[in-house]
């Protein structure tokens, strides 16, 4: 960008930031998030505050960008990205952009990809995570989940602003550290949340922890005596070991608890990563086995730096809101290729609802096992699967090389059966003699045939009032085997009155076939829906949902076939979840629950058919429910449990997920869907608003929603019989054709084009149907729209062509088709990214080959100077790098920051690429614009093997970057122990300092890296060297709250009395920040530190009192700290505590011996005066009886100054005289001389009453409000 254009952009950015502030302020979080989401409201308010802080820190003031703004904003590409981020925030908070709120539902199959801001544009150079989050998350279709998505999206946008332009006070820019602040070794919590969200990790549950807790001592140990299993579990894993172990057994044999025990054993016995996933029908969304891969990846990456780097880079290279299945499978393979000997454990594969479905389908257990096998092929990964013995699972696992199987027998678990049986009997019959209990438990164990679930279901017959003979008879008469036990429960149900029997069957149907476990309130409404209802029968609702209701109307009807469990520790009765007692109950019900008046014959091959029949029935019930007007009338909702609309979120978001509604065969369901969409159902508008996330957006056409959901029959109905205009509302950005092409609905797209839909209609962000189909690799749809005249040259609003989108996604067949239709190979987007650069960055080798064969230019760089080889090297795509080098790619060309491919590979730890580049003659001495060499970058990021290679090649380990940060300093600061050790072994100097005087020891102490500190001390690091601010290693460790490092440094002779430039000792900073344990350590070593005064004359007790750290005050007083010490302005600790309203601290100080209560500071105010000024009633009540000075009672007006009561809340920004809180953006005065340039600030009130600086000759400088 030319200088003039850049200046205009900067000015415009200031106006946009002001608009964002206004939009953010209009969001009333407590109103928008509701009473049940106060924590979300608090999080939103916190992120709103962070957003405001970021703006001030980078230079936005009074609607303008100051001349001293952050230098990163002078970079054209950074400016463009910040502009787009701010625009997204403005849209998010204003709700003005209709399409900003487009949703993705779990039924989508392939989650909606966000092509609005491609990964190329959304990736700042050198790793700052900027991808996606350009519009809202893929919204889950339930109220609180959607609100959570809102908050997380806003938080992500704010965090990416911090990543794009880090404020100068960020930790990454500590003195001597240098400009780069991305620390992938310690990812920000928001980064972790973002990665988990992008990976699509399922919500955590307690199944593993519960299984560990439920396991009785001594049980499950038998498995360790089975040779094959014991050998497989052994920690001395080798490449020759079998990759897959399958432990199977009948239902009810305690396999889940056994699996949890095996995870426990593996985690404690081997040093390599162990990740587990427990698939259970009892938890929402846990019927998809591919969720295991998503969860496994997350478990590994947060414990392994190399794996984390891989996922972070893939995250930046993809613009999907949630990673697609194919992306996850590729990622899983990459992780296993990078991290050796990972062990993955999967329990409950037999509970997957896909089992028995079409094995050629993409949603089948067979497909999952096939993808899993290919993903771990030729790696050292190992898989443990625990499940029932199902033929589909056996067939899939048998294809794994070295497959081992162990089948659990009743004899294996008999001893455990006895232990469990004794536990049940002892718990239920504590009033019986021990011999009686032993006899009964043995009797139960002998009859259970290995089934723990059978034993559990005996609890209902073990009643304290029965004698031994009666109890033995009850046990003997209990049917053997689970099926016969279930038969007894079913016979009870069949004997119920008709109404009760109907209700019981309905409860079991919903518990068995709902997409997730329903709450008590939800299922209470669900069982009331039938074909005879014209509206929700409110008169059949219970008076209240409590334990009595659950016992009589749910458990009392279904017996032990069903369970009601707490969803949270403090769950109300209505929010508890209704589950089947065991997965085997569902299989049993396949043969019992009537299907439209008939009973399905007991044929295992009909399971899938039965599942489809039941889901069709539930889909119709959900659709009928949302057609009830009362459901949408919130004024009639009953009580705190929300009866009357509890089932609304589930029904509204699930009716189209229960079956393949694109080809629904049930005539009634088809008719009901048509009626719902064609205007015959009056609740359509309410559902549409719900679907659009309840936002004030421009409604799209009915045809759009039908196309979005892939309702082929409904689309046909609307076009042929209702004569809907296919181009209606197309200008809103919500085009029916565009969304159908995006989601790959070929038949829907054919119908829309057949009735005259404009083939080049644009949707959100300027996306055409061809663009969205190309982006998602929908080849047949791409062919269709091209045959209908789609224009391959139309770009989205950021300059991306369909060819660029397809290249970035790796869709080689689509790329080939587009090229054959004349797509231009050299057109770049706004950021300068060409198709070949996009494909290279994403690692799509075949696409890169194709584009090169068609003449793509490998020397063209993007706007920041990145060529395809630099992009591929940075992202770790070794095969792409090899290909580009073979085609003559230049390895010495640097980007605008001076980064060459070698530097990129070093920073990201891509060893194989690094070696490849060295073999091609890359220069290891080349540094970037900040003076960072490849060694600096590798050491900073902890890539030991790269550092080794560089050291062996003679890289300079002494010279630092422009800030003086040497490789040793950077490695020490980030805690990379092995890198530090290697550098020291090769002559790195522990005494070298940065330009700001930071030594490696000071950096490691500040970062809290205990082992690094130990190593540096052992190698002769000077414990007393301070930086230019006077901060010694001891002070740095104390400042960050690292007590173990403080102990170590003190033991090595560090001086606890040594003060930094402002006179602060470690005790001062520990007292200010409230580090109690740390203060105890310091005071134990240095009693003389108690009353040391810093530059303003303040002691540790003053700071502890000022901040209200009452336990620290107690400690300091016990160490004989002077309670009447006075600072430069004659302020005592009591006054400091009183004016800040710290009641407990004031109470402690008043109990101290000889405390002076009525002392007046230089402003003539006592502790009571200050308490009155700040309106702290409790503090006033403590001081009044002790004070001899007559004080006026507090009021809403300050009687001394005549101003409203001043707030003195604790905040990092305070008046250095009276310690009053100086709110962000407020005017104040500062002395630029004192504190050696750090500034000495005072509030307006202190200035107005004539308070002077520490030196009376110093002048106050007015700092205007931002």
Automatic annotation (TrEMBL):
Per UniProt, residues of the Nephrocystin 3-like N-terminal domain are 218-388
ANK repeat ranges, renumbered to this chain: 732-764, 765-797, 798-830, 831-863, 864-896, 897-929, 930-962, 963-995, 996-1028, 1029-1061, 1062-1085, 1096-1128
Fetch the Pfam families from UniProt: Ank (PF00023), Ank_2 (PF12796), Ank_3 (PF13606), Ank_4 (PF13637), HeLo (PF14479), NPHP3_N (PF24883)
The UniProt entry, under InterPro entries, shows: Ankyrin_rpt, Ankyrin_rpt-contain_sf, HeLo_dom, HeLo_sf, Multifunctional_regulatory, NPHP3-like_N, P-loop_NTPase
UniProt keyword Metal-binding present: no
Boundaries of each Prion-inhibition and propagation HeLo domain copy?
5-168
PROSITE patterns cross-referenced by the UniProt entry: ANK_REP_REGION (PS50297), ANK_REPEAT (PS50088)
Key words, A-Z: ANK repeat, Repeat, Signal
Give the signal peptide as a residue range, or say none if absent.
1-23
Put simply, this protein is called Ankyrin repeat domain-containing protein 52
